[in-house]
Design a protein that fits this description.
116 residues, mainly beta, 4-stranded antiparallel β-sheet
Length: 116
């Protein structure tokens, strides 16, 4: 979204020399260490969008299609560290024989991004 200074119609970021960060870029890793009730999930934050990564982790669900941070029936598990690079989290309490949809996420000043 672009901020516009009403009197001149010029973008504020151009006038002030500042710009809001873009969303982070990231990937979602394949699950590993899968047992009947747990799995190791994760991803990698590959770009910070010129903003500080304040949180990262995974979201997962059953029957929700694509999980979204804060979505109904979606479980969020935050990594113990923020920033760039690879991370993993432990998901427990899973149900044997159930298919889960998983996405990584990262939060910066530009908003919340999800991996593919």
């Amino acid at each position: 979204m672009e901020c516009v200074e009403p009197a001149r119609g010029q973008p504020l970021d151009r006038l002030l020399g500042v710009r809001a960060p873009d969303l982070a870029t990231l990937t979602t890793a394949d699950a590993s260490g899968v047992t009947q009730t747990a799995a190791t999930l994760g991803g990698a934050v590959t770009g910070d969008g010129d903003g500080t990564i304040s949180a990262r982790g995974v979201v997962y669900c059953t029957g929700c299609g694509t999980p979204a941070v804060g979505g109904a029936g979606v479980t969020r598990v935050d990594a113990s560290t923020a920033g760039l690079g690879a991370f993993t989290v432990s998901a427990s309490g899973l149900t044997r024989g159930t298919t889960y949809s998983v996405r990584s996420f990262a939060v910066n000043d530009g908003g919340t991004a999800t991996g593919r």
